[in-house]
User: What shape does this take?
Amino acid sequence: MKSIPDQQLDAFVDDQLSQTDRANILDAMESSGDARNKVAETRRLKDLLRLAYQNQRPNPAQFRFKYRKFASHAIAAACGALSMLVLLEVMYTPPPDPQLHQQAGAASESNLLAAGSRQPEQVLFHLSSDDQRAAQLLLDQVELVASQYARANRELRLIVVTNNLGLRLFQVGQSQQAERIGQLYRKYDNIVFAACGTTIGKQAAAGEKVELLPEVIVIDSGVAELTRRQQNGWKYIRI
Amino acid sequence: MPFGTVPLMKIYGINSVFNASCLISHETWVLMFSRIVKRKRVQQRVVAIRNRMFRTAYAWCHNYSLAQDLTQEAALKAIENAAQLNDLTAVDAWIFAILTNCHRAHLRKTVSMDEINEDEEGAIESDLLPDRISEASRLVEQVKQAIEGLSEEQRKVIILVDIEEFSYAEAASILGTPIGTVMSRLSRARQQLKKRLLSNPITAKAPVTYLRRNS
Amino acid sequence: MNTKIVKPILGQIMILMLLLTGSSAFADEDVHKLVIQVSTDDVRTQNIAMNNAVNLQKALGQDNIIIEIVAYGPGLSMMTPKSPASKRIPSLAMQDITFSACGNTKAKMEAKSGKKIELVEGVQMVPAGVLRIMELQEQGYAYVRP
Assistant: This one.
């Protein structure tokens, strides 16, 4: 009777065998007392080892202290305790129950626009190219969102930010959408058109004169504005 | 802005803005996004398994403070190198592999190179006597001494399989050895331990099974 | 998303710190969510969008990230049978990547051409692409536009 190799028996005890191999070993064990002994011994050995080590814990006080060092290492803040509080205060909080994407479905309109005591919707649109199709698309989408929210009687705040080449959309003499911007501005009082001051500065420095459409305001920096508002929960669409 | 060197951005929105502002390429953004996810996962797991890491390190070296140091070191290394994690479903094994390397590095520093023979009986700088005497049971003491009689690599394998219950494949990836080597070292380790422990009057007959956990 | 009010100057400090620190402020979830916008008819960009979706799934594991690709404006072309990029959509849809087409854009295109527009297998309709993106952001999706 061929004896079963030790490694096979080990694998059997450690549950590392396939179903078929396992079945074979069980068969073989029936007729081999030697194999059964070895298996029993291996199991006992495992028990002994677990007895000796299972409950090893680090000294809580020491470990915790070192863990704090490790935690601050991992969260290496540049400034002191106050800045940590600031960080924690504005940290992103978990979103509401994540919908499984299978459930998401196509009926998105009703979810977002459902009336009720909700906070105002806040969304940023961002344009940084001078592509005319992009400019057109941007204003189409702005109008779509503004009209949908108006129709649903939901409060909305919408800011259109342009920087770099996107600034052209807001420049007199450069923009092909000046009239449309005026119309949108008059029709919806919750839309703000904002031009990036940094970009304007660069253009001025390069000797170009920048004259903005009357509906456009100037902000310090497009990127900073977009970043800050997103921190505060504003949504963001880039065209 | 030194974008390439900045470790990680966190808030979803900022990711988009910086991507949108053309400060980084889209490919870079995707890379950074997956880096963020990996780092976060590693951070979570390190916190969750630090006791297990300590237990393993202790079983390997029988030295309380060394085990703590190794655990801390491995935890930090894991977080710092999270970007190198390839398989998000096998984070624990990856972290234990780092722990293994920390221990091996420590051994290399304290043992000269030509003394190392992987399969020979290895010296183990175990705890000072007072800690060991406080062990409740002579039984446990016997087991620990038997473990100390194993070679370094045998010890590593048997602790990973019997205490931490990693699969052979996981143990192989943690230790960086082929699975066949894992199995042969495990077998030899068990043979040796059986000789020392199961023919020993104290350990052979002691009632152990009632302490078995349901895991 | 919850709206928090942060004083402007704190906002500046905060932005600086966020750049300098390595800590993670992700919600404590195991699953991450990403919406990818396609609003251009440039085929190369459309392919990049899909490549990134696939690469992210590979990098993080399909179970660990939920990805939705939303197409509107010129980007809707990506989902029409004639487009080279659309060939990949049915198989990617089987891989758990969601493809959403803007109903508003589709209606406009049909009105202009006078013909009905067909979309490939694996694409779902949404009333409006941007509204869909906004809704997903509300649910905590990260957003990227290649």
